[in-house]
């Protein structure tokens, strides 16, 4: 009887989601209530704890919420990375409410949840949120975690050695990314109105001399940012928050806006094989609670349309002669290599986000001849399934399967700067002399 009453209380708490700010205890109570009310559609877990010991809660939604299912891509939203940027924290709670109440009623959202595993983290920096006592449109100390560190400057960087001490919240997210096969993600911020995409940092190799840091998948990132901005109530207008700053189409390359070292979106893309963009959702960082309903309405469609993009491109499995999955096989698009090669997961799966077009997919098991397959990719986001293309290596068996270590945590683009004309000639000569010495030797 006591258990029944507790469940009833949790369910009623889940049903009563007001447009207000939910502090840590209320947020946890709400998430537990949703899970109690929808146990077969949701899974609640913590990826770790903040400096002050608060759980970093994630609610998963989908037909198979408790574990990865082969062929079903993993998606995530992360909010409140800066504790004083609060709009994303609340609209993700309303997104959860919208999804669970629409399942089985709305055919599109039902198919989305049946074919996608959606992870939602309302707050990555609960300590910072609790430290922000008075709502304020501008910067406060609550931006940082309890150790005074900016979590969006705290990740390993692909271009520079990041000297920042990795924080518990950052480490938890890094481990989370390592343990899941995330394909697409967005992190929700405040203080501007724009969709920003990778790279946030750069060097001459990626185009920094021209004020733009281009990734190998720049076309896909532009599409992802435009998907969000064009479905937002006003972001697509690109007017920004004042007359000094405009964003054509409501999007920007991160480096073009301002250079950032140790950012989360670059880390996701380089080391996590996950395409992430940064969504700035409000000119005011911590607006009055009576504006939250409007923010939810402004973002509702964009949040859903963005999730659908996880089904862009191509996916499949790499197997050996017995049909067993081959982990750590490299699968990439020809002429679109990543500096940290994209590899299959433990199930031999790969996911590559690509716009409609013709591509050559290169699958490589180290030590064996590569397999090339030409694919014609359509926009399958409406079908909730990327194009399926498997690879089978008949000469590979369990006994000789190669297991490759993950990419190193050092700046991967560092030595590529030597090929740039911007680098001093003496460096070129030194490199050339070294290469010639090796060849002659």
Automatic annotation (TrEMBL):
- Offer a single GO CC term for the protein: extracellular space
| Peptidase M14 domain location | 20-310
Tell me the GO BP annotations in alphabetical order: peptide metabolic process; protein processing
One Pfam short name: CarboxypepD_reg
Please give the name of this protein. Answer: CBPM Carboxypeptidase
- The signal sequence is 1-16
Q: Residues in the active site?
A: 280 (proton donor/acceptor)
- Keyword list, A-Z: Carboxypeptidase, Glycoprotein, Hydrolase, Protease, Signal
GO MF entries: metallocarboxypeptidase activity; zinc ion binding
- This protein's source sits in the domain of life called Eukaryota
InterPro entries recorded for this chain? CarboxyPept-like_regulatory, CARBOXYPEPT_ZN_1, CPM_N, Peptidase_M14, Peptidase_M14_domain
């Amino acid at each position: 009887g006591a258990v029944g009453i507790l469940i009833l209380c949790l369910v009623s708490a889940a049903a009563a989601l007001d447009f207000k700010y939910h502090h840590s205890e209320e947020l946890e109570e709400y998430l537990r209530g949703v899970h109690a009310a929808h146990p077969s559609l949701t899974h609640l877990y913590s990826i770790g704890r903040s400096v002050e010991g608060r759980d970093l809660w994630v609610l998963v939604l989908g037909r198979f919420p408790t574990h990865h299912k082969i062929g079903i891509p993993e998606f995530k939203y992360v909010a409140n990375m800066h504790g004083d940027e609060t709009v994303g924290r609340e609209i993700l709670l309303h997104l959860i409410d919208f999804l669970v109440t629409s399942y089985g009623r709305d055919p599109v959202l039902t198919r989305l949840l049946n074919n996608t595993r959606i992870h939602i983290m309302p707050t990555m920096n609960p300590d910072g949120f609790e430290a922000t006592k008075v709502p304020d449109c501008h910067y406060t100390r609550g931006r940082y975690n309890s150790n005074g560190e900016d979590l969006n400057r705290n990740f390993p960087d692909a271009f520079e050695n990041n000297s920042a001490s990795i924080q518990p919240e950052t480490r938890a997210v890094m481990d989370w990314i390592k343990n899941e096969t995330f394909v697409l993600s967005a992190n929700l911020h405040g203080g501007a109105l724009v969709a920003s995409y990778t790279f946030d940092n750069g060097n001459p190799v990626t185009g920094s001399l021209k004020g733009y840091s281009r990734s190998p998948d720049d076309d896909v990132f532009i599409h992802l940012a435009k998907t969000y901005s064009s479905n937002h109530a006003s972001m697509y207008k690109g007017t920004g928050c004042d007359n000094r700053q405009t964003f054509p189409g409501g999007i920007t390359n991160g480096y073009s806006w301002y250079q950032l070292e140790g950012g989360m979106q670059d880390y996701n893309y380089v080391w996590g094989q996950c395409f992430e963009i940064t969504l700035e959702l409000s000119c005011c960082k911590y607006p009055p609670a009576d504006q939250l309903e409007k923010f939810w309405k402004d973002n509702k469609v964009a949040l859903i349309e963005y999730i659908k993009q996880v089904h862009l491109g191509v996916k499949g499995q790499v197997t050996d002669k017995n049909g067993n999955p081959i982990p750590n096989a490299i699968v990439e698009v020809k002429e679109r290599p990543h500096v940290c090669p994209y590899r299959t997961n433990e199930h031999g799966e790969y996911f590559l986000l690509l716009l409609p077009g013709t591509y050559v997919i290169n699958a490589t098991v180290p030590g064996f001849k590569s397999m090339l397959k030409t694919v014609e990719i359509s926009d399958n986001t409406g079908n909730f399934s990327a194009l399926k293309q498997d690879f089978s290596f008949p000469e590979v068996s369990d006994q000789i399967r190669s297991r490759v270590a993950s990419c190193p945590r050092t700046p991967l683009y560092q030595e590529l700067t030597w090929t740039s004309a911007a680098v001093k000639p003496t460096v070129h000569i030194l490199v050339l002399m070294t290469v010639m010495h090796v060849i002659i030797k």
